[in-house]
Amino acid sequence: MADPKGFLKNTREVAGRRPVEERVNDWDEVYPGGIGRALLPIINVQASRCMDCGIPFCHSGCPLGNIIPEWNDLVWRDDWEGAIERLHATNNFPEFTGRLCPAPCETACVLGINQPAVTIKNIEVSIIDKAFESGFVRPQPPEWLSGKTVAVIGSGPAGLAAAQQLTRAGHTVAVYERADKPGGLLRYGIPEFKMEKKHLDKRLEQMKREGTVFRSGVEVGQGDLTGDRLRDRYDAVVIATGSTVARDLPVPGRELKGIHQAMEFLPQANRVAVGEEVEGQIRADGKHVVIIGGGDTGADCLGTSIRQGAASITQLEIMPQPTEERPTGQPWPTYPMTYRVSSAHEEGGDRVYAVSTKEFVGDDDGNVRALRLVEVAFEGGKLVEHEGTEREIPADLVLFAMGFVGPEQPGLIEQLGVDLDERGNVKRANDYATNVDGVFVAGDAGRGQSLIVWAIAEGRSAAAAVDTFLSGSTQLPAPIPPT
Ligand code: FAD
């Protein structure tokens, strides 16, 4: 620890975002010149605030088990190559988590007990951006090949992490992706203003050079490549197909035109943002947009609708407005806020809490024109509507962002014959194995909708299990057991 008094001398400072009026006119990341570069003038001092605690709770706060005090110290000493080596030892893709993670490590930071936590997420993204710029991120192809083959189905963060680990361990890995390009939600869910796709593409380039093969535009389980064929052709299979069945809202008027799932709207917007053309694109321009749901997906719909020029945007949430106030007599830090507050919430839109949608109201042409809502509260564990509070709000584009209920079952999952758990996710044992010999699962397909950091951690853990299955033992780390 280079500066034992760093946390006494220095206060927390984070990267400043671009002014709202500037950034809503483009799709670039909300930080000037990329967050990593924006942070460089302050980052050594910020890293010096790490106390290098005897028991660093940040390690266990992070699902990846990132060894945070070590790379904080290396950044403080200006040893960026050493820092990326320590960071990559536990995290394949810090450029994703450094931009997109809600940072449970910061919630766990001991400094947070009586002053603001170390800016761990900012330090992480500075390390990886500087590493890419300085040429420290090099392909790490295996020294020998095992002769074993693995199919990874799905190219989101879980599939990519599993594939990178298994390729480096010497197995021959093919990643199948039904979309035209790999990346999963990192490419077609998450907008450019949160993470520009060039960061994903740079990492995919490294993976290709290491020997991972990508087969995009192939939906496994449809057409020739059935579950049986897959098992015949490969020694092991990793299901990393995500949680893609979106929760619906079957209230009167659901059939009206202008009501869409977020994942119908966002992928189209993301394609257009990088210069593609989408015929019949669902757009928010000039419309009264209502977003139902208050998480990351809702925030991404909000930022996208703002950039497309919506006339008004209202984001509805069934839960009450959270409070960050500490209850009297409770000295310890409060539980983190229930809802994500994203950069998009600085940019516009109204948030309405504790309401439920009763009905969508249409015009004579079958288009939605309004949404009828009612105020609600949770009483005795039950959702209760407040009589006399029903009202209509204008809505000519409604976007559902109410979460995902599990992986799609027809096709691959049915063909493989894997068991599902009581929530409809792929059931796995402690080693990420399913009930079908040689078939493993990682990420949202098994965990249920979650976070990028969990997907990467599960991908790494599943890779260790596959390596043991194929080779009898493994040197690969397994950061987390499944829950
Ligand atoms: P996914 O990323 O969903 O990837 C699964 C892939 O499998 C997809 O590309 C799909 O096309 C492919 N696939 C499915 N079936 C087949 C098949 N049969 N054959 C071939 N390919 C198939 N988390 C955060 O931590 N921070 C955020 O800011 C954040 N923002 C989000 C924003 C949105 C809009 C959404 C929807 C989620 C967000 N999340 C965020 C959650 C996070 O993106 C997911 O938890 C994570 O991507 C899950 O990774 P995964 O690899 O399991 O699945």
UniProtKB/TrEMBL annotation:
InterPro entries: 4Fe4S_Fe-S-bd, DPD_II, FAD/NAD-bd_sf, FAD/NAD-binding_dom, Glut_synth_ssu1, Glutamate_Synthase, Helical_ferredxn. Pathway: Amino-acid biosynthesis. Keywords: Amino-acid biosynthesis, Glutamate biosynthesis, Iron, Iron-sulfur, Metal-binding, Oxidoreductase. GO terms for molecular function: iron-sulfur cluster binding; metal ion binding; oxidoreductase activity, acting on the CH-NH2 group of donors, NAD or NADP as acceptor. PROSITE patterns: 4FE4S_FER_2. Gene3D superfamilies: Alpha-helical ferredoxin (1.10.1060.10), FAD/NAD(P)-binding domain (3.50.50.60). Residues 41-72 form the 4Fe-4S ferredoxin-type domain. GO terms for biological process: glutamate biosynthetic process. It comes from the Bacteria. The keyword Iron-sulfur applies. This is Glutamate synthase subunit beta.
